[in-house]
Design a protein that fits this description.
By secondary structure, the protein is α+β, with helices and mostly antiparallel strands. The protein contains 5 helices and 19 strands. Strands 2, 3, 4, 5, 6, 7 and 8 form a 7-stranded antiparallel sheet that branches. Strands 10-12-17-16-13-19 form a 6-stranded antiparallel β-barrel. The protein has a two-stranded antiparallel sheet with strand order 1-9. A hairpin with a 4-residue loop joins strand 16 and strand 17. The termini are far apart.
């Protein structure tokens, strides 16, 4: 009886294998031709599966823009002064004018970085030229306008709202279309497409990965639109200029048994007579892929949807036509 059961299991397994063999090849086995001069390998062409943003990603991403009007703002809430932070379902009071019952408003916060630490040279000068960073906190609906302060209900919150946050008219955001899994060319040279730089990230994060929202210094004036993909790239020259990461370049990587030892970026008085490694001659590498989820004329908000390693503030971005 046990032998019959075992044979039945084998027969079912064989049938299942035959059925699986008739299915299309796995994504990793898709036949893609590598560009001339390259070999298609997982090292240089890893398979990219993007992470799609949710509604919370779209409406809680924040942005950089020219300063917004500040006349309409949060003045308090139903439990003021005992309650100072307001979330889903709370009643809040909005100072200012122009409110109408049924209108929706976005609650945003004008941001400042209390640490004031530049993650790359010129970061704050670049941010100042681009505009003012804002976080997106909540969506509210006006339910009463009979007093000087309008009454609104928080319908959706990303983070707690506090008095002094601004109210601006709510605008629906476009959905983002996503491509199927594709090969990601890690060593693609510069293409001449519009390019820029990551200047800031949501919550002032500095080491970024999939799902993190970030802001770049290029926008609709450069032809960017929601749904465009940007390739995040980094050169070894940029690493050499980083005050922390560059320390590793100063450590010796030679072995005692090497007759002629290599020198990195040798100066006239430090030449070893061995091979000379010029860091800026090493290939540019892609570190991740981001998708644009919002634009202004000069900036764009984007989300990392795929990363091969940590993405950093200051990394370059380039339009990537998948």
């Amino acid at each position: 009886m046990k032998k019959i059961g075992f044979l039945a299991i084998l027969a079912l397994s064989a049938a299942s294998f035959a059925q699986d063999s008739s299915m299309p090849p796995a994504a990793n086995d898709v036949n893609i031709t590598a560009p001339q001069g390259t070999e298609l390998t997982n090292g240089s062409f890893p398979f990219e599966r993007v992470q799609a943003p949710s509604d919370a990603d779209l409406y809680c991403a924040g942005f950089i823009s020219k300063p917004l009007p500040s006349a309409n703002f949060v003045a308090g809430g139903l439990a003021t002064p005992a309650q100072t932070k307001f979330v889903n379902g709370d009643m809040i009071y909005l100072a200012g004018g122009g409110y109408q019952t049924g209108q929706q408003y976005s609650i945003v916060r004008e941001l400042r970085d209390p640490n004031r630490y530049e993650m790359f040279h010129g970061q704050y000068a670049m941010l100042k030229a681009l505009g003012q960073p804002y976080s997106e906190l909540a969506r509210v609906r006006i339910i009463d306008t009979r007093s000087k302060a309008a009454v609104a209900k928080v319908e959706f919150s990303c983070d707690p709202v506090v008095p002094g946050d601004y109210a601006v008219p709510f605008v629906d955001k476009a959905k983002v279309a996503f491509h199927p899994p594709v090969r990601f060319d890690r060593y693609l040279p510069a293409t001449g497409k519009p390019s820029g730089r990551i200047v800031m990230a949501k919550d002032f994060d500095t080491v970024l990965g999939p799902g993190v929202k970030l802001y770049v210094n290029m926008g609709s004036n450069q032809g960017l639109k929601v749904g465009d993909y940007l390739r995040a790239v980094r050169t070894y020259g940029a690493t050499l200029e980083d005050p922390v990461d560059s320390i590793s370049f100063k450590a010796s990587s030679n072995e005692d048994t090497q007759r002629r030892q290599a020198s990195v970026e040798p100066k006239r008085f430090t030449r070893t007579g061995g091979p000379e490694i010029h860091v800026r001659d090493l290939p540019r590498r892609a570190v991740g892929e981001v998708v644009v989820i919002g634009t202004t004329p000069t900036t764009a908000t984007a989300m990392i949807v795929y990363a091969l390693e940590d993405v950093h503030l200051g990394d370059g971005v380039e339009v990537d036509e998948q």
